[in-house]
Fold this protein.
Amino acid sequence: MTAERAARRSAGTAAAPARPLPARAVRPVMSLRWIVSLAMVALTVVVGGGVGAIAERRARAELTAEIETRLRLEARNLALTSASALLTDYPELTLVPLVRQMQSRQPELAWVVVVDRNGVIHGHSDVRRLGTLYVPPAGLELRSTAGAAQETLQANAGILMASAPILHPGGQVLGEAHVALRRASIERRLAGARRQQFVALAVFLMAGVGAAFLLSARLLRPLGALRAGIERIGAGDLDTRLALDDRTEIGRLAEAVNAMASDLKRAQAQRAERERLAHEMELAQRIQRSLVAPGRTVAGPFVIESAQRPATEVGGDYVDVFELPDGGIGLAIADVSGKGLAGCLVTSMLSALLRAFRTTHLSPAAMLATLDERMRELLPRGSFVTMFYGILEPGAGRLRYASAGHNPPLVYRARQRTATWAPAGGLPLGASRAKVTRVVREELVELEPGDALIQFTDGISEALDRAGREQFGLERMAQRVCAAAPEGAAAIRQALDDAVTAWRGERPPFDDETVLVVCREGTAAGGGVGDDEALSLLDEATRRGRRLRLPASLAALVRIDDWLADCPVLRDLGGLERECLRAALREACANVVEHGQLRDGEDGLELWWLEGDGPAGVTDAGTDAGPAVAPDPAAAVARGHFLLRDQGVPFRPDDWRPTDFHDRRVWRRGRGFGLDLIHRAMERVDYHPGTPAGNLTIMAFGRPGARAGREEIRHAG
Amino acid sequence: MQDEFKVTSAPGRGRTALLRLHGSLDARTAPLLLEKSAEVQANGQNLVLNLAGVSFVGSSGIGALLILVEQFQEQSGKVRLAALSPAAEAVVKLLSLDELLAIDRTEDEALEALER
C-alpha cells in the first residue's frame, strides 16, 4: 500500500509540469543588534529628555528663589548702610561710591537707587539723576512683602526689584533702598545649566548604545551555531546534536531542536518498520491467495464456482473446494475475526487442519467440532472463526452441511424461482474458551436440477455503498441470485460480483469478498412452479392419505392433536418429535385461518398425511407410487408429506427467511416465528397458491437421514 | 377438550416472583401471560415461569416469552423458565432457544439461581 502511494506520488510529480518556485518576496533581514541599539537610543533620549525637563523646572524655581533672597538681602544691606549717610548733609558723597561699587561687583544688577522719604534720589550710579525724583518703572507688580520693615519684592517682564526701608535708629523712616536685577541674567544662568545637561545626555547615549550593541552581540552569538545545526538536521543528519552552553531561551531552543532531531529519527525508524511490515503483509497476502480454491469445479451434474476479492489489507477469508475419498466434495468457507497478519496465520492454520482431517470421513458437524477443539488451543485470545462446512454428494444430489456461526446459506429453488435462507447457527470456532457444550446442527439440502446454494462471507452482504452508509444486505443478494440463477453457477458468481462492485462504487473493498456457488445443472422438472406435481401428490393423498377436515377457526385446531394420535406411524414418534410436529401443523393451519380470510362454516381446511415418498418426480428418491407398504415398526422412521388445502385468499410467504434469535431485536418483535417452527420441523415446505384444487401447502416430513442429521451433536469443548 | 389457560401466582422467594402456567399458550392466551407478568414486573422483581402444566406452545406463545425476557432485562430483572413440559421443551429446542433462554429442571433450581 505504501509502495502504491509512493508510486502515485511520483507519478503525480512526473505528470505536473516543471514549475519555477513561487517568487516569494525576499524580506530584508532585520538585525537584532540594530533593533536593540536603536531601542536603547530611543529609550535614552526619552528618559534623558523627560528627566532634563523636570530638572530644569526645579532648577529654575530654586534659582529664582535664591536670587530673590539675595536681592532682598542686598536691599536690606543697602538700607542699613544708607541710614547713617542720609543723616549727613551730603549723603551723595557716601552713597554714590557705594552704589557704584555694588554695580561693578554685580553687573547683572540693572540699577541701585537710594531715595529719601520724599522720593528724591541720593544714591545712583549716574550722578545726573542725583537730586531728581525717583520714578519706578511701569508695570511693576508686588510679588511679596517680608518682615515688619515693609521690605517688598516687585517684578515686571524684564525686571526683579527688591526694596527695603531705610530706618532711623529711633524708628522713623528716612528713605528707601531699591536694588533691581535684569531677569535675563536668570535665563543666562539656566541656559548654561542646560548645556551641561545636554553634554551629559550625549555621553550617556553613546555609552548606552555601545553597551547595548556589545551585549546583544554577546547574547546572540549562539544563533549562528543554532542555525548551522538546524541546517545540518534539515539536510538529513539526524544525529546532529547542538551543544550550546547557553542558559537563555536560545539554549532552550537548542534543546528543543535536539529533541526534534531525535523524534524525527525515531519516526523515520518507525516508518521503515511500517514499510517492512507492509512488505511482510504482501508476502502474507500471496500466501493467502495460494490457499484459495480454484475458480471452477465440476462434479457430476454440479458446478461449483468460488471467487474472492481481497480487501486492500490481508483479510481473513478462506474458501476451499476439495474432493473427498468417497467421491463427495468438501466445501468450506470461513471468516476469521481480525485481519492482517494474524488473520492470515489463522487462515493458514485452518487450511492445514482441514486438509489433515478431510480424509477421515467426518460428518460436517463432526468436522466443525474437531476443528473447534484444535483451533481453540491455537487461536490467540479474542479471535474466532465463523465457518460453513458442507459435503456435497453429487450422485445423490444433496448437500449436508453444518455452520459454526456463519451466515445462513441462500438456497435457490428453480421450480419456484425463489431464493430462501436455509437454517444455520452454531457458535464460531474458538469463540468460547471455557469448557462449554457446543451445539452444531447438521442440515440437509436437496438440490434438484436448476437449484443452487450460495455461501459467502460478510464482505459481500455488508459491503457499504458509495456514501459508506448502507450495507448491500441479504435482500439484494437474494434478488441478484434469483435473477441470475437460471444461467448457472458462473452467472450467479458474476452477478453478485458485479452488483457488489457497483454498490461499492470507487471505494476499495473494506473486507474480503468471498463467494461460493454450488449449482446443479439442468432445468427444473416440469418447468413451471411444480403445481402438476403438487396436484398429483394431492390426488395420491385423496386416494390413500389420512385426512382431517377442520373448520376455519383457531379453536378447532386442537383437533390436530387427536388426529395425530390416530395416525399410524406418527403416533409412534418420540415425545419431543411429536410435539414439534404438532406445533408445526397447528402453526401451518393457523396461518391459513388467520390470513386466508375464510368464511365461517362454509370454507374449511383439509389436512392429509401421505405416508411414503410420494409419486416419482416429486422427490428424487423415486419410489413407485404403489399402495402403502406397511411400515417396518423396527425402523420406525416416519416419512411422507403433509398436504394442506384451503380455498382462501392466497398469501405469499416467499420472502421468509430464518429468524436469527441471536439478534435480540428479534425478541421484541414477539411474533412471526410460525414459519420458523414449520420450516424447522419439516424437511421442506412448498407453497402452491391458486391451483385448480385450491391453495396447497406441501410439507415433506422426515426424509431418511434428515431427521438423524437434525439430532443435536453435543460434545464437551 | 380445550384446556383452559390459567396463570396462577405462587409464593416466590425474595425479589423473585413465581408464575405457574397451565393450558395452551397460543395466540389467544399469550396476552394474558403478558398482562400477569406486567403486574409482577411493576414490583421490579425477577420472574420464574413454571411451564410444567403447559399443554401446547405456539409461535405466539414463544413470542410472548421472548418479549417477557426482554422486558425484564430492560429493568435489570431476569426471567427463568422451569420444569418445561414436553410441549414447551419441544418448541424451545426446535427453535434452538435452549441456548439462549435460562432454563432449569425444577422450580426450586430456578428460584435458587435467581437468589444468587
About this structure: Residues 61 and 72 of chain B are 17 Å apart (CA to CA). The radius of gyration of chain B is 13 Å. The helical segments of chain B are 30-41, 59-74, 86-94, 107-115. The longest strand of chain B covers residues 46-57.
